Fold this sequence. Notes:
Blueprint: H1 3-14, E1 23-26, H2 35-43, E2 47-50, H3 53-62
Parallel strand pairs: 1-2
Amino acid sequence: MNSNVFYSWITQRLIPVLSQKSVLFMDNVSFHKREDILQAIEKAGHERSTLRMSGAATLLREC
Length: 63
């Protein structure tokens, strides 16, 4: 995946089906930080939170 594919997926596939005021948890891969992606998320009324790898491991253990 690259930033252009991710942008298209976020704006065309994910955002339209999200519940209002959702929080998107993303890891720290560089294209998750692209400004137009972050703006699209915020413009749609959602938030982005960074998921650190240690946090991901904790979530997996709790499931």
